[in-house]
Write a structure and sequence with these properties.
Layout lengths: L24 E4 L2 E4 L8 E3 L17 E6 L9 H8 L2 H4 L2 E6 L6 H7 L4 E4 L1 H9 L4 E6 L6 E6 L16 E4 L5 H12 L8 E4 L4 H6 L5 E5 H10 L4 E5 L10 E5 H6 L1 H20 L1 H9 L10 H14 L14 H13 L16 H6 L2
Parallel strand pairs: 4-5, 4-6, 9-10, 9-11
Antiparallel strand pairs: 1-2, 3-5, 6-13, 7-13, 8-11, 8-12
Helix pairs in contact: 1-9, 1-10, 4-12, 7-11, 9-10, 10-11
């Protein structure tokens, strides 16, 4: 299974515990050392101050906060790694701990304030919110939805528009997952329904499903799986969701309680993260070098692949249109995402979309 980039986005249940990944490293100053026994399992705490190209904090006692990312360290976390490495968090009086691996009831823990921040997508946040979990999207890191259609180039058909799905067997990871949502959005864009295709649940086995001809097309995270398949020697064709789908992509959520009681903490986190995102877009090579240090003992032959994943990922992180600031999320996108989730039966009720997000912190960040 290839690395998933967003918590729960590949169809995993955010309430399901998983085995912890390999131990992370804690980085202080310009040296990397093994995480100490005091570091929680599946976590990495990074405090960077006063190194070359960083910002030195005047804060004597930074506030400890936790960011739950899900899964393992990956280059998609570049904005957070950069904000750590360059001291943007510590300059804002924050000591950020990244918690990897799925966490049982993570959204509820964020709602209760036991975890401060969590990575989400619009299609994972809305169902949770409608079930009474009081978390809110506070900044977008990705402006484009990362899921799209993937097929082998020599499959005997062209994948150039949403209408090309008609008549084909189409794989998705799990019902209600982001790959399922992406598939439904693509069908809607072509005025098609599930009856026009043969939908097949394939888990996280895109390569096997495509190469064994189990499915003609697989919905997956194009910034990762398409790159990985090319690295394995396969020629592929891809199709991104049309802009008209306007689904809310990856970003950060915080609990209503934290937002209401400590808005300055939320602002500090968003401002520092937006600064990291800005740096990643301005210097992709530097962003990769910083991120690479968090990936552990990566074999040399894997480094070019991860660099390509980084390049593809940054394409989804480009600034929003219309002169909006980094971190801004489109209000119309929240309505569109809720509408699609309701149409597909993932949610039954609805709510005012403005309860799902706030742009106040992104608009005040000014990285």
């Amino acid at each position: 299974m290839f690395i998933c980039l967003v918590l729960a986005a590949c169809g995993g249940d955010n309430n399901t515990p998983t085995a912890a990944p390999a131990p992370a490293t804690a980085t202080t100053g310009s040296a990397s050392v093994p995480a100490t026994a005091a570091t929680p399992p599946a976590s990495a705490t990074v405090a960077m101050t006063g190194t070359s190209g960083t910002t030195t904090s005047a804060c004597a006692n930074p506030t400890h906060v936790v960011l739950a990312t899900g899964f393992t360290p990956n280059v998609g976390n570049a904005p957070y790694y950069i904000a750590m490495a360059k001291g943007y968090y510590t300059a804002n009086c924050l000591n950020v701990e990244i918690k990897y691996g799925q966490v049982t009831n993570v959204y509820q823990l964020v709602s209760d304030g036991q975890i401060q921040f969590v990575l989400v997508t619009g299609d994972t946040l809305i169902p949770a919110r409608l079930k009474g979990v009081n978390i809110k999207y506070i900044m977008a890191t990705n402006q484009k939805y990362p899921v799209g259609a993937l097929a082998l180039a020599n499959s005997g058909f062209s994948l150039k528009s949403p209408a090309d799905l008609k008549g084909h067997s189409v794989g998705y990871s799990a019902a209600g997952s982001s790959t399922y949502v992406g598939m439904e959005a693509m069908l809607k864009a072509a005025n098609l329904t599930d009856n026009d295709i043969k939908p097949i649940q394939i888990g996280f086995n895109e390569v096997e499903a495509l190469t064994s001809k189990r499915v003609d097309i697989a919905f997956t995270f194009l910034s990762n799986e398409a790159v990985q398949m090319r690295a394995l020697g396969y020629q592929v064709q891809t199709l991104q969701l049309p802009n008209t789908a306007n689904l809310i992509s990856s970003g950060v959520a915080a609990g209503d309680k934290l937002i209401q009681e400590h808005p300055e903490m939320v602002q500090a986190f968003v401002s520092a993260t937006a600064h990291g995102l800005k740096d990643a877009l301005a210097d992709p090579s530097g962003a990769f070098d910083i991120s690479l240090k968090q990936l552990g003992d990566l074999s040399p032959d894997k480094i070019p692949v991860q660099r390509d994943v980084m390049t593809a990922t940054l394409d989804y992180m480009q600034p929003p249109s219309g002169g909006h600031p980094l971190g801004w999320s489109d209000p119309a996108g929240w309505q569109a995402t809720q509408n699609l989730l309701q149409a597909t039966g993932i949610i039954s009720g609805t709510a005012d979309p403005t309860t799902f997000y706030t742009n106040q912190f992104a608009e005040a960040a000014k990285p």
